[in-house]
Recover the amino acids of this structure.
């Protein structure tokens, strides 16, 4: 059964015909060639497929593409203009918050959503806030530091506006 | 401490420069295997066995082939026509690519479905009808050698039982004799369970065979692209895939940790499928396939440690039963079937040791795949470090004090270990002292005494490990006969910028940055001006790859040596340009100058330009060098880790309060990256210590084959790691470096286990095998209460 | 891991959903957040032929006090509950439990109604509902009905809901001056299903004497369970 869906992805409107069972992560990766969103577990445990849907981080491996009809989606490719860094990306770079890079897009998107609800989190709140995103390389210490740096930077930015 | 020789702009050794590879990963522009999309690409999905041991009576492809979009179902019979249904393992055992008659473990590949798209391929796999005749699986390795146990590998000529090999090292008689006479002997059977590295990216490939050019290109999740190319040529040379026609490309790798060293059957099937169909074929493993089809550890170790009554260690003996599943697919050097297990004598000075091991077949997935330590150092260190703590408990001595009294002393290096290694350097006393200072050991000892008086359970655990990495000297170390050297090739362009290529392959270690820093250190060319490439066998020099913490010890050394060749050539060019003799030229980072007249100088960039434009008559033009580095010895990173835990008696809940890790990995190239490696390794240390373990039932079914039940630690379980360093440079490595990435995975589990067992000591609990979960602790507490 | 083929239907209203359910019968399943059902479909433990998406139905997402009840719209996400000032101030037991349910990205999608309607004894919310003596409001072919929580859970993944019934609202007795509760969960790691969990709700009178107690248990039997004997004490 095919469905025509329209959504905004990274600021651009996309219309496509999809099967009922097509998972959003495959739609993003294979139909739209936005391969920054990854697949790590299939059981919504690892968070490598995390994207922003209507302003909230979600796991796109456990979401049907057809249900995203009308949604506004941001993937890692869309969080900052080409050649620039979102404060969260900059912080991951500065604090060595990534090794192999595979969990990084999901981790960055999740961390941005975390700061939306809690702009100045404690270390413990950060750890709980990224607990749906597995990283096998970094041991998380530097990811926590990165989120702390980004929180500071983003608060400065919001104060200066 | 290490003093930087270069400016931060040049970014040589010792500078925490930010990583050059980050930008693409941060923007979702990395290229991992599943991101590769070739025109006309097909997808392969494997049908896998629900049984651990079964005869295949029939495979009916019809219903699958009737699904529109399913192009082929490939079985072992199809591969047998090309003699491709079996392949050698890295340790010269044999492994099925696809079975023709017998299934040897649950989830083994049964056949492959090739379709136009992922979804159709999955439907196809479900539609294949396989008629199995299940048999009673052999699951318990202790029963593998029983009389009457089914012979699992009758296919192997001369195989009369389920023993794969017996290995031993050391003097059994003398060790037994010392143990028999010793004042104190502590004994324990220690089990290190099966675990899986579970890199967040699973394994996969895109195989693309072009029937016109007869060339095979494979994008592959591999840590060792060159070795894999050679293996493919050996496995499939007879069908025309000869080595010069094979190109392996390891693109960005989403974590390896040793899980991406082996040649997996599905790789071969995808290559065969592309060869037969003439189109690119992609195979991407799903998480369950990943977790269930390989493993690390699975050593059952019977340990005995003998000492005088005041705690001077005299002898260590360990007899191990190794469960290898149905084939020995360990990625070990051929002369070292148990890897570097004989490092098990540890950081202590004593004379007598004996280690032996029997490896057996069972109906489980083949293994010996690594888990951030490929060569059995983790098992060895766990054995000795648990036993040293057990000895301390037995004679009532502080475990730190016991270690101080037995350490190999700084002045004893190079130290000849009882089982034949030559430890290069270390200062174990200083390292442990630093760890104790940093955590506040005495303060915690006091706190522990107070808590115990209140009936609370608090434990302090120490591990002082010695690692052995950097394989290896080629006289001893080879894989399938290929010597374990590694390589670097540097091309300095006329404008003074450079391209450097290596035989290794980063999976997150940051080679694009650290190798550039090594070259910056040696040549004075800023690290930002040096591009590093790895992973493409058509362009990179031959090397054995990245695993076993060998990249810095081997390829890093090769980079330094190749740079030194360039520096020597540059000296001749500088002398020519400055019109003095070569003997009058001196070098300081980035610059040649005339002895006694430092104002007369040429930069490395001037010299590079001259190498293409104005070189001495008779000199070969160009500014390039290659080096294949064959290390004279291994390196022996070491460390002292201390862990403090509290245990809740009512629930068994374990709270890791502090964890301090002091590492001596020799000279450090990039402190930021080294610290990051240690953090990551520590989390992969707490994982098997408290959470992970592949569990089988009596039928050979895996009970925890997804991330819902295979418990990879999140940021909440992972403690806030505290790290530090001591430095004793490796005397034989050109940069004095030793390698680091595996040390924390090796050192953390015993520190954590020792801490938890120390916490439980007042209840009379003397040992628990990892993973030490709250449930296991609770059960142990209940059992001891009953006593 | 990919689900079997099915047909997707988007319901625009409760009536529409019930009609779709009637048309497609036993082979149809409602999906709200989908975080319980879709993983089972991907593992092919469940292969419904029709999915009726109720997540787009307007007006089923709310947290409000009305009359004697706290009313929770079935499509309220766990995150909306987590960040609701009303919940934080007066119904802290929910905050306890939600922090321990799956992870933040899952909670952004997973709904309170789905967590209960799935009938999984391992889910966290049912124990809370038992402790707080909630009432489930469902709508079906014969209009609305209210089901006391003690009559709601029937067996392993089985509830009092008829195939066409949709859980639309949960009603929890309004917090009193001196009432409160907590949820404690033993889990192997954060986000895991409960090894076991216990929700306790108590109400005190002005002199501090316990007047009411509710205790619900997670994942200790095939159905979410009330600890009757504990309550009697």
């Amino acid at each position: 059964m095919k469905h025509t869906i329209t959504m905004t992805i990274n600021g651009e409107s996309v219309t496509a015909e999809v099967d009922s069972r097509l998972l959003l992560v495959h739609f993003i990766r294979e139909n739209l060639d936005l391969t920054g969103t990854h697949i790590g577990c299939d059981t919504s445990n690892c968070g490598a497929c995390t994207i922003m849907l209507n302003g909230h981080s979600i796991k796109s491996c456990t979401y049907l593409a057809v249900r995203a009809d009308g949604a506004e989606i941001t993937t890692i490719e869309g969080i900052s203009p080409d050649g620039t860094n979102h404060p969260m990306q900059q912080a991951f770079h500065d604090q060595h918050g990534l090794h192999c890079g595979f969990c990084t897009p999901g981790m960055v998107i999740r961390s941005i959503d975390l700061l939306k609800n809690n702009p100045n989190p404690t270390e413990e709140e950060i750890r709980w806030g990224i607990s749906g995103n597995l990283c096998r390389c970094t041991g998380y210490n530097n990811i926590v530091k990165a989120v702390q740096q980004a929180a500071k930077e983003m608060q400065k930015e919001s104060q200066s506006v | 401490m290490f003093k930087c020789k270069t400016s931060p702009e040049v970014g040589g050794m010792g500078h925490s420069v930010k990583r050059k590879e980050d930008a693409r990963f941060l923007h979702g522009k990395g290229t991992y295997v599943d991101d590769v999309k070739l025109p006309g690409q097909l997808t392969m999905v494997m049908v896998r066995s629900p049984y651990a041991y079964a005869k295949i009576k029939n495979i009916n492809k019809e219903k699958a082939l009737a699904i529109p979009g399913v192009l082929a179902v490939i079985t072992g019979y199809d591969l047998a026509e090309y003699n491709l249904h079996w392949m050698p393992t890295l340790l010269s055992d044999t492994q099925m690519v696809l079975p023709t008659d017998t299934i040897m473990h649950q989830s083994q590949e049964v056949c492959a479905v090739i379709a136009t798209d992922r979804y159709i391929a999955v439907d196809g796999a479900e539609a294949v009808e396989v008629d199995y005749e299940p048999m009673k699986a052999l699951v318990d390795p202790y029963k593998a050698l029983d009389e009457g146990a089914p012979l699992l590998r009758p296919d192997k000529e001369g195989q009369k039982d389920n023993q794969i090999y017996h290995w031993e090292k050391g003097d059994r008689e003398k060790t037994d004799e010392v143990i028999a006479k010793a004042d104190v002997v502590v004994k324990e059977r220690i089990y290190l369970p099966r675990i899986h590295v579970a890199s967040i990216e699973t394994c996969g490939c895109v195989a693309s065979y072009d029937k016109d050019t007869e060339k095979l290109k494979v994008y592959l999740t591999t840590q060792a692209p060159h070795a894999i190319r050679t293996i493919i040529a050996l496995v499939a040379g007879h069908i025309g895939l000869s080595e010069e026609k094979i190109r392996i490309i390891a693109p960005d790798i989403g974590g390896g940790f040793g899980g991406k060293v082996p040649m997996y059957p599905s790789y071969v099937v995808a290559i065969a499928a592309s060869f037969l169909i003439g189109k690119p074929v992609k195979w991407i493993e799903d998480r369950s396939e990943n977790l269930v089809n390989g493993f690390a550890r699975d050593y059952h170790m019977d340990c005995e440690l003998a000492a005088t009554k005041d705690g001077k260690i005299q002898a260590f003996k360990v007899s191990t039963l190794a469960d290898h599943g149905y084939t020995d697919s360990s990625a070990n050097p051929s002369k070292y079937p148990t890897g570097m297990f004989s490092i098990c004598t540890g950081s202590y000075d004593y004379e007598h040791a004996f280690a032996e091991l029997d490896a057996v077949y069972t109906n489980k997935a083949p293994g010996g795949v690594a888990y951030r330590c490929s060569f059995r150092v983790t098992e060895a260190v766990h054995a000795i470090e648990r036993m040293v703590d057990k000895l301390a408990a037995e004679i009532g001595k502080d475990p730190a004090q016991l270690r101080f009294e037995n350490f190999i002393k700084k002045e004893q290096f190079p130290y000849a270990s009882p089982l034949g290694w030559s430890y290069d350097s270390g200062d174990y006393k200083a390292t442990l002292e630093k760890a104790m200072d940093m955590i506040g050991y005495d303060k915690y000892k006091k706190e522990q005494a107070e808590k115990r008086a209140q009936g609370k359970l608090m434990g302090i655990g120490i591990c002082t490990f010695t690692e052995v990495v950097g394989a290896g000297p080629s006289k001893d170390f080879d894989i399938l006969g290929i010597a374990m050297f590694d390589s670097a090739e540097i091309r300095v362009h006329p404008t003074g910028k450079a391209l450097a290529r290596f035989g290794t392959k980063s999976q997150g270690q940051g080679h694009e940055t650290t190798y550039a820093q090594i070259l910056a250190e040696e040549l004075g060319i800023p690290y930002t001006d040096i591009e590093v490439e790895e992973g493409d066998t058509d362009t990179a020099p031959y090397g054995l790859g990245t695993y076993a913490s060998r990249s810095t010890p081997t390829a890093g050394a090769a980079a330094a040596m190749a740079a030194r060749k360039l520096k020597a050539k540059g000296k001749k060019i500088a002398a020519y340009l400055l019109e003095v003799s070569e003997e009058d030229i001196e070098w300081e980072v980035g610059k040649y100058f005339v002895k006694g007249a430092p104002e007369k100088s040429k930069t490395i960039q001037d010299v590079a330009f001259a190498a293409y434009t104005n070189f001495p008559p008779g000199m070969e033009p160009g500014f390039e060098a290659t080096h294949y580095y064959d290390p004279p010895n291994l390196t022996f990173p070491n460390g002292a880790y201390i862990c403090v835990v509290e245990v809740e008696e009512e629930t068994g809940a374990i709270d890791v309060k502090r964890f301090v890790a002091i590492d001596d990995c020799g000279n450090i190239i990039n402190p930021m990256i080294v610290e990051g490696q240690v953090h990551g390794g520590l989390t992969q240390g707490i994982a098997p210590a408290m959470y992970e373990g592949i569990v089988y039932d009596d039928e050979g079914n895996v009970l925890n084959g997804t991330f819902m039940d295979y418990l990879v630690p999140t940021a909440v379980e992972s403690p806030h790691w505290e790290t530090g360093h001591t430095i004793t440079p490796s005397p034989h490595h050109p940069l004095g470096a030793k390698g680091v990435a595996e040390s924390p995975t090796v050192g953390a589990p015993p520190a954590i286990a020792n801490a938890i067992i120390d916490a439980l000591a007042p209840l009379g609990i003397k040992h628990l095998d990892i993973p030490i979960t709250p449930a296991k602790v609770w059960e142990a507490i209940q059992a001891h209460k009953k006593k | 891991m990919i689900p079997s083929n099915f047909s997707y239907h988007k319901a625009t209203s409760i009536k529409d959903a019930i009609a779709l359910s009637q048309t497609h019968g036993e082979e149809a399943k409602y999906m709200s957040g989908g975080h319980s059902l879709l993983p089972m479909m991907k593992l092919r433990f469940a292969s419904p032929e029709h999915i009726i998406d109720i997540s787009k139905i307007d007006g089923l997402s709310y947290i409000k006090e009305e009359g004697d009840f706290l009313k929770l719209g079935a499509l309220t996400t766990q995150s909306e509950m987590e960040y609701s000032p009303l919940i934080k101030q007066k119904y802290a037991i929910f905050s306890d439990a939600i922090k321990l349910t799956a992870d933040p990205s899952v909670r952004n999608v997973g709904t309170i109604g789905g967590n209960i309607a799935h009938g999984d004894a391992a889910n966290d919310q049912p124990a809370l509902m038992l402790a707080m003596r909630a009432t489930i409001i469902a709508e079906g072919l014969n209009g609305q009905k209210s089901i006391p929580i003690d009559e709601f859970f029937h067996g392993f993944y089985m509830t009092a809901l008829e195939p066409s019934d949709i859980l639309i609202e949960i009603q929890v007795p309004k917090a009193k001056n001196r009432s409160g509760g907590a949820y404690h969960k033993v889990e192997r790691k954060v986000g895991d299903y409960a090894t076991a969990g216990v929700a306790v709700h108590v109400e005190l009178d002005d002199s501090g004497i316990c007047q009411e107690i509710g205790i619900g248990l997670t994942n200790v039997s095939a159905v979410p369970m009330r600890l009757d004997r504990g309550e009697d004490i």
In short: Chain A has five helices and five strands.
